[in-house]
Automatic annotation (TrEMBL), chains A, B:
<keyword id="KW-0812">Transmembrane</keyword>
<feature type="transmembrane region" description="Helical">
    <location>
        <begin position="357"/>
        <end position="378"/>
    </location>
</feature>
<feature type="transmembrane region" description="Helical">
    <location>
        <begin position="476"/>
        <end position="492"/>
    </location>
</feature>
<feature type="transmembrane region" description="Helical">
    <location>
        <begin position="242"/>
        <end position="263"/>
    </location>
</feature>
<feature type="transmembrane region" description="Helical">
    <location>
        <begin position="275"/>
        <end position="296"/>
    </location>
</feature>
<protein>
    <submittedName>
        <fullName>APC family permease</fullName>
    </submittedName>
</protein>
<keyword id="KW-0472">Membrane</keyword>
<keyword id="KW-1133">Transmembrane helix</keyword>
<feature type="transmembrane region" description="Helical">
    <location>
        <begin position="212"/>
        <end position="236"/>
    </location>
</feature>
<feature type="transmembrane region" description="Helical">
    <location>
        <begin position="133"/>
        <end position="150"/>
    </location>
</feature>
<feature type="transmembrane region" description="Helical">
    <location>
        <begin position="512"/>
        <end position="531"/>
    </location>
</feature>
<feature type="transmembrane region" description="Helical">
    <location>
        <begin position="170"/>
        <end position="191"/>
    </location>
</feature>
<dbReference type="Pfam" id="PF13520">
    <property type="entry name" value="AA_permease_2"/>
</dbReference>
<dbReference type="InterPro" id="IPR053153">
    <property type="entry name" value="APC_K+_Transporter"/>
</dbReference>
<dbReference type="InterPro" id="IPR002293">
    <property type="entry name" value="AA/rel_permease1"/>
</dbReference>
<feature type="transmembrane region" description="Helical">
    <location>
        <begin position="450"/>
        <end position="470"/>
    </location>
</feature>
<feature type="transmembrane region" description="Helical">
    <location>
        <begin position="537"/>
        <end position="555"/>
    </location>
</feature>
Length: 713, 713
């Protein structure tokens, strides 16, 4: 694989180091950080008291070689992980075999396992390399499926100006074809320049700065969510057009489809990649068949267009209307960026194979799009409620039923596949953002099945909400569509212009011109879509992009602050060297039961200064408790706080904070007696006092919280 | 106050000791338990290592006398509790003054304070003693308000057999009057025998056993929830009868009323008790006025009944119909038990004043009930939709509008008051049950405002759900009503029969006969209601009572098991004496950041054997981490678990469990590095790993969990 050129040597090291490995969650340290660590360590070495080393451990070194008894895994709600094999000294390998689950609470892990399959080993992250003939259908489903709704949304804007205006679709389609070719060629340049991963987020971040990168990412995120919602809606529409009696359950059907996509992707459907080839080819074949039949029919009547059904004009034909139709038609281009995101999955030479595939894809798109728009004009098809124009065209064109059914079925299938593409790309985008600390760290995590479960869940929930809010009406969702895609296109191509002017590789002038043309055309569509459809819903996307960028910047700010606060530095306070920590142990005792006695015994066994605190609601209870305490033997100093307002948590916290203010040099260890109740459904019977105390005490400076659980049934 | 007789000395001590004090949550210990404690303590005294006493503490003894600086209370989400005044040595009093809140997160406590008022001191639990003239209206609102819907439900059963059947209301009312007098006299006996608290739960538990007591309590719980739902529904009906344009918002209105009752009761409206006198007297006056006007009108036409509006019969007059009408009319008696629950609130001699008040109440009930039924018959009133019969009667009888308005307003008011009675009784009943460990312990807790907030919340939620499910239709709720009340009546009176035959005080034979008569009559109503209305909804109550009893028994079983597991015993295991605890400290380290270094330093400073564990997803990361570790200086033995399936929690838990199985004598202290993040809204950015680890480890035997928080912004 050819490495990306980095002529000025200024590239941030992360981009090249990004891999989808499970260890991505655990960051590497720089040399400087390692040095600081060493400095910190040397301060330990100067300790006046020797830190116990491993030799003194009662840790059986044979543990690694032993296979513990199968009654392991008693801790609840977890799949019991098998056992340990020793490999090197001081190293164990959890083999990941699952032990037979002992009874009840395993239900959860069992359901999980049946639905999602067993956990996969980290080493199972494989790169499936694709031939061009496989890559084409897998990566093009999103793009090609767009012709199932792109022409329709264009026509449904035009028809507002009466059926006469429908003929405007031909010139608009001409302009769109120019746009498609320009963007396609433009992306060919990007692939050449960024053969590892040419996603808009990376390209825009690197060349225009992080804010623009985030804007592109936000646009793409909106786009992926919309892709799922729109594709599912269009797929469901294709079904209800063919089988109108299913129309009343359209929304549950769509939600079910999203749920299936969710489950399938959580399970990890990577291996099924090449199965995806079939529906895409089937769809291409179906459309070409439609075009062929239509051409023959039109030729028979001398290419005279049939008149479309009369529709009254509600708007005049104006610049705004044409621009809106143009922006709507541009939604046929969603998905063109798929190849550039996925260059590394091709067989070597990757970038060359990817470019060839992209060329094929765009050619197919141009043929299918222009063919469909022309045929719709010739056959006099106009948008109607309850029926997609593609379905209408099929009904008008095909002489026999089975061909129409085939068309509708393959349309529905490729639309669902297109939704699936978003399930691949959205989590990957969030992974890159999380890697740059612009998204929550949890998006770095590979789930049990080595997929980014959190990203997949986020996408599903977002798409399902959108689908429900818009009642599954495709046309209502399309206005929101073009803005996000073309924002990403524009920023990515602009980034490439910047790239060429900086890098100046071979043919850089030609590449720069091509990318500049792509950027300008994309920007025109972007502005057209954003302005022309602002009130029709595009404002949601504009606001959404702004919001995502602001949130991402806030997240980055927070992570940076936390990083600054947690990165090791040579001397950071009073608790950095074990020999300097002074202890004081506090045991809050509510009643003298076994759980408190265990906590007291544990606290006393630490051998540090110790006292107990009791919070009493009134003097009478105070007396009673004192009597219990002295019956026990008064082994530990007892402080009683009488709190007439019965505020246990606040009183204790205030007390400990006062203690800390008086003696900030002391580390307070609060030893909390706690009941560990094995059955979850009886836990509410015991209140939440330990949890509330823990939450409150965690906020106090200089306090360490120790829970001593007593196990009860 | 006269103590309850306890001639056989076999009474459980709790009943007499039950008080609504804040210390009820903290149980007393018996002498035996104190002795066991002493035995446990003596084992400590034999310690080979001296437990540090207070003298060695770095605890400033002046803390108590100091007023800490006002920057106290930094811990979030808590009302900052003021400060400490020293009283005795080793005793502090949290005065409960609230410090001025420093900024933002105090919003929650402020809203709370505005809605509910400031926290009250525990000593503010006062017993308001009532004169009879005050006690009568306060305690009778529930009972007397029942006549607002009791006659109506009876008529609405009878009218099913046509308007001719309405005249059957007169003989049925006669039987009901006999029932009322019998139950009233029967309760007089109960009050004499149980002057402290004569609630059905206590009486039935003590005389018939806990199961019957629980059945009575379950019946009453259902009844209280129904009282709130029915009273609110009837109150809203009274309003919409007068102002029909409010009918569409009847349900939101009812929910709002329940919310107001909830807020008012959480705030604690005890002091307003005597304000309650007014509406009750106003209602009594209104009904008597109605009866007077009606009597005059009827007398003018020689007491000839007006014919009711014609209604077609949908059922034949049969035994079943009459029985169902009887059971429906019996719902007029709900609330008669209120006095017996509240004997101690009367001025001394409490039981005598309570009895007198009960007599007045029942007399008023009989007069108002019979008067209304007769007047309804004379005025030819029949149930109609959208109008209560009381409202109809008012419209027919009163010559002028204001009198009708007065009647409706006072009806609505007393019905809301009746709902309020349930808000007093329901939490108290749950308190008694919780005190006997038949209900969750949280019902023992007095809230900030010295009311049983949890009981009040439970009642409100239950009533609101019921109100919504039944769409606020009073008549739909009434069939569920009688079963619960008369179950409690029957069990309580049966218990009294048992009581007299055991105790044999003065006049015991007469008392026994009276109670037996009450029990038999109540049982007849119970069976009538349960059988006659089983399919109409009474099955819900029957099932509910069974369910509550089963749950209560389960709760008791659990508490008993926990009590057995936590009560101190002379020697309970390896962790009972501090000198016998052997330590091993484990620090799970994900990355070598400041938070891990703090945890390592803390763990090392404990001076116990120590090792660190790192869980690595693959060998590569393993190597990387080892390098970091040796850069730091390799001060602590490091175990690396390679977990290719990336199961961090399960791997660590399995490892620790294996360790425990090998060396069960060692107490494992797991020192968890944790970030304490002050702003809650950024917490999701950091995952839940520490919380998940804590949950999993808490289930392991022999493991103590220590959180070392590092504070970050």
């Amino acid at each position: 694989m050819r490495e990306r050129e980095a002529p000025d040597g200024k590239e941030p090291p992360e981009y090249t180091a990004v891999t989808f490995k499970p260890s991505a969650e655990l960051p590497q340290l720089t040399e400087h950080e390692l040095e600081v660590l060493g400095e910190v360590g040397r301060q330990w070495a100067r300790a006046h008291r020797r830190v116990p080393r491993s030799d003194g451990l009662p840790l059986d070194p044979g543990l690694g070689r032993q296979r513990p008894a199968p009654q392991l895994g008693r801790f609840s709600r977890l799949a019991p992980i098998g056992m340990f094999r020793s490999q090197a000294p001081e190293e164990l390998v959890a083999t990941g075999e699952q032990l037979p689950a002992p009874g009840r609470l395993r239900a959860q892990s069992r359901i999980r396992r049946v639905l999602l399959g067993p956990r996969l080993r980290g080493s199972a992250v494989v790169r499936e390399r694709m031939r061009k003939l496989v890559g084409l259908p897998v990566l093009s489903s999103d793009l090609l499926s767009s012709v199932a709704y792109g022409p329709e949304t264009m026509l449904s804007v035009l028809v507002l100006a009466g059926s006469g205006a429908l003929r405007l679709s031909l010139p608009i389609a001409g302009v769109l074809v120019v746009l498609m070719i320009t963007v396609g060629v433009s992306y060919r340049q990007t692939i050449r320049a960024y053969p590892r991963s040419a996603g808009s987020y990376l390209v825009a971040s690197e060349n225009l700065g992080d804010r623009f990168g985030l804007a592109a990412a936000a646009g793409l995120m909106m786009d992926y969510i919309l892709t799922v919602a729109v594709s599912v809606a269009a797929g469901v529409n294709a079904i209800t057009s063919a089988l109108p009696w299913l129309a009343p359950v359209a929304i549950p059907m769509g939600i079910a489809v999203i749920a299936v996509l969710l489950a399938g992707n959580l399970r990890g459907v990577r291996a099924a990649g090449r199965l995806f080839a079939a529906p895409t080819y089937a769809f291409i074949f179906g459309i070409l068949l439609l075009l062929g039949f239509g051409a023959v029919q039109a030729a028979r009547r001398g290419f005279a267009p049939l008149p479309p059904p009369n529709a009254a004009a509600t708007q005049a034909v104006g610049v705004m209307l044409v621009l809106r139709a143009f922006a709507s038609g541009a939604s046929s281009m969603t998905g063109v960026e798929a190849v550039s995101d996925a260059v590394p999955v091709f067989r070597p030479p990757e970038w060359r194979n990817a470019r060839t595939t992209l060329t094929w894809m765009v050619s197919l798109l141009v043929v299918m799009f222009t063919g469909l728009v022309m045929l719709m004009y010739l056959q006099g098809v106009a948008p109607r409620p309850n029926q997609t124009v593609l379905s209408e065209l099929g009904r008008k064109t095909f002489p026999v039923g089975p061909l129409y059914d085939y068309l509708q079925a393959s349309t529905a299938l490729i639309l669902l596949l297109a939704a699936n593409t978003a399930f691949q790309d959205f989590p990957r985008l969030l992974f890159f953002m999380a890697h740059d600390r612009y998204a929550p760290r949890s998006f770095l995590r590979l789930g049990d099945r080595l997929v980014f479960s959190n990203g997949i869940l986020t996408l599903s929930v977002g798409a399902a909400l959108l689908f429900i809010v818009f009642h599954g009406r495709t046309r209502a969702l399309i206005p929101l569509y073009a803005v996000g895609v073309f924002l990403a296109f524009t920023l990515s191509q602009t980034g490439m212009v910047r790239h060429w002017s900086r890098v100046r590789g071979p043919h850089w002038r030609r590449s720069l011109v091509i990318n500049a043309a792509g950027a300008v055309l994309s920007a025109i569509v972007l502005v057209t879509a954003a302005v022309g459809k602002f009130t029709a819903g595009a404002w949601v996307v504009v606001a959404g992009v702004l919001l995502v960028v602001l949130i991402a910047l806030g997240i980055r700010r927070h992570y940076d602050a936390v990083w600054a606060a947690t990165t090791p530095r040579a001397a950071w306070g009073s608790t950095d060297r074990p020999q300097e920590i002074r202890h004081l142990t506090v045991v809050p005792v509510a009643r003298l039961d076994l759980s408190s006695l265990c906590a007291l015994a544990y606290a006393a066994s630490l051998g540090q200064p110790l006292f107990a605190v009791h919070i009493s609601p009134d003097d009478e209870e105070d007396e009673r408790f004192r009597r219990q305490w002295s019956s026990w033997g008064d082994h530990v100093r007892l402080e009683i706080i009488v709190s007439p307002s019965r505020a246990v948590v606040a009183s204790l916290a205030s007390y400990l904070e006062a203690l800390h203010l008086l003696r900030p040099d002391i580390t307070l260890t609060v030893v909390l007696p706690e009941l560990a109740i094995s059955r979850w459904w009886v836990r509410p019977l015991h209140g939440h006092m330990p949890a509330r105390l823990r939450r409150a005490l965690r906020g106090l400076p200089g306090v360490v919280i120790t829970s001593v659980p007593l196990h009860v049934p």
